[in-house]
From TrEMBL:
Provenance organism: Zea mays
InterPro entries assigned: LRR_dom_sf, LRR_N_plant-typ, LRR_R13L4/SHOC2-like
Domain Leucine-rich repeat-containing N-terminal plant-type: 27-66
Superkingdom of the source species: Eukaryota
Organism taxonomic ancestry: Eukaryota, Viridiplantae, Streptophyta, Embryophyta, Tracheophyta
Record-given protein name: Leucine-rich repeat-containing N-terminal plant-type domain-containing protein
Pfam families tied to this protein: LRR_14, LRRNT_2
Domain annotation Disease resistance R13L4/SHOC-2-like LRR: ranges: 74-147
Signal peptide range in chain numbering: 1-28
Keywords carried by this UniProt record: Leucine-rich repeat, Repeat, Signal
Length: 148
């Protein structure tokens, strides 16, 4: 009986550790998205649901997550947003789609987007992006769609 209790305690401890790690990941993703929100002007209030006090950004509008609550998609196209991109976006390590087309985003593409190893699509079409494509994006093996 004692051996069974020990195994249950170990399993409970492992589950608690996994939960803490998942929440830490969700918090860092939420922090990255909050940095983006602070850098953008949002006259239509479309990012109003982006509440940085929530543990999980997967409940925010225009954010899609996988079954492990990791951000995989940002759909922010044609929302009348202005401002600039932030380097913190490079922390969204599971991001596959970054859709920002038809806004008034300006400035350069942060080189930190080269950290997004799973990025398939980066759509910055019809914005005011300046400069060149950072060389770091050239190492993204999954990237098949780049429009700017």
């Amino acid at each position: 009986m004692a051996a069974g209790a020990g195994a249950r305690a170990k399993a409970a401890g492992a589950l608690a550790l996994a939960l803490v790690l998942a929440l830490a990941g969700a918090n860092s993703e939420g922090d990255a998205l909050s940095a983006l929100r602070r850098s953008l002007r949002d006259p239509g209030g479309v990012l109003q649901s982006w509440d940085p006090t929530l543990v999980n950004p997967c409940t925010w509008f225009h954010v899609t997550c996988d079954r492990d609550n990791r951000v995989t998609r940002l759909d922010l196209g044609n929302l009348n947003l202005s401002g600039h991109l932030v380097p913190e976006l490079g922390k969204l390590e599971h991001l596959q789609y970054l859709e920002l087309y038809k806004n008034s985003i300006q400035g350069t593409i942060p080189s930190e987007l080269g950290n997004l190893k799973n990025l398939i699509s980066l759509d910055l079409y019809k914005n005011n992006i300046s400069g060149t494509i950072p060389p770091s994006l050239g190492k993204l093996k999954s990237l098949v769609f780049l429009l700017w």
